[in-house]
Structure to design on (313 residues):
């Protein structure tokens, strides 16, 4: 029987955490009683610098339930870093770790199927949403566009998969070798290359509290994912520059012909329009290049991705 750690990143989740803990403790005990998980299995909460009573709740759960442990990060490091911190902690003791969100939108009844695929030899098992009925139309549409865009840019990413996944010890050890500061685990995990499987589940409504991923954060997350795993935007800029240069040559020839034929007429509108168009394209290109330079800046500094302040073992 494998020792299973469920890794749950938390940021200001005091409203939903009591319900989440009750469900997870019940499910873990069921897995242990059914012989699917070892009695050394644990629920690992990662407090990502919460400003509410999240850590106090985790401390209380740890005192009440032997299967609950936790770590507290010194400051808010972001969801991906908090998740990585939990996975790296889990790999010290677990045969496999299953990451899921604290809001109970990930169906915990799918844990049995995760472990079945693991027993079949899968080192990585992806939880894939079979439906997104709980999401708004806007969120479903933008998610579809995001996954398609990532595919078009050459990023190996599992469609409709977030961070609900199982990783075996070998996969966790391999993950620890990835040292980049700009984390995008949905893109990194498929690069590991071990045998993988898929478990489909239905996404549920958030049990309580507010989403920690508003539109601004989702856009930032998408930009991080694209710029961390694909250089095609830079190639697009290069191709765009070539196209504009060719068009400019034709424009220059047209202007010279008009001048020497005596038919040149001052065109204020055309001049202003071209200045605004080219200026906008240049600023957009500079912005894209700046994103990549910023990534390089962060990687070169190589600062710690997270710092653990407290640990409940």
């Amino acid at each position: 029987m494998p020792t299973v750690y469920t890794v749950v990143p938390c940021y200001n989740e005091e409203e939903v955490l009591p319900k989440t803990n009750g469900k997870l403790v019940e499910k873990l005990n069921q897995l242990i009683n059914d012989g699917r998980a070892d009695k050394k299995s644990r629920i690992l909460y990662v407090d990502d610098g919460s400003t509410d009573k999240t850590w106090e709740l985790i401390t209380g759960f740890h005192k009440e339930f032997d299967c609950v442990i936790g770590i507290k990060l010194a400051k808010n490091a972001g969801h991906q870093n908090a998740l990585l911190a939990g996975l790296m902690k889990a790999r010290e003791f677990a045969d496999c770790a299953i990451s899921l969100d604290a809001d109970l939108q990930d169906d915990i009844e799918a844990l049995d199927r995760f472990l079945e695929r693991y027993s079949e030899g899968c080192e990585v098992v992806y939880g894939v949403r079979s439906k997104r009925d709980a999401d708004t139309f806007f969120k479903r549409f933008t998610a579809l566009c995001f996954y398609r865009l990532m595919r078009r840019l050459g990023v190996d990413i599992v469609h409709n998969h977030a961070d609900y996944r199982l990783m075996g010890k070998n996969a966790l050890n391999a993950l620890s070798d990835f040292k980049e500061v700009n984390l995008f685990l949905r893109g990194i995990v498929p690069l590991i290359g071990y045998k993988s499987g898929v478990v489909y589940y239905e996404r549920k409504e958030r049990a309580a509290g507010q989403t920690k991923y508003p539109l601004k954060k989702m856009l930032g997350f998408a930009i991080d994912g694209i710029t961390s795993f694909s250089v095609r935007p830079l190639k697009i800029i290069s191709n765009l520059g070539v196209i504009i240069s060719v068009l400019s040559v034709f424009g220059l020839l047209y202007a010279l012909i008009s001048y020497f034929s005596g038919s040149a007429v001052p065109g204020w509108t055309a001049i202003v329009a071209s200045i605004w168009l080219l200026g906008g394209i240049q600023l957009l290109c500079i912005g894209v290049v700046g994103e990549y330079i910023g990534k390089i800046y962060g990687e070169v500094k190589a600062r710690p991705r997270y710092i653990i302040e407290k640990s409940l073992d």
Summary: The longest strand covers residues 124-131. The chain has a mean pLDDT of 82. The first helix runs from residue 17 to 33.
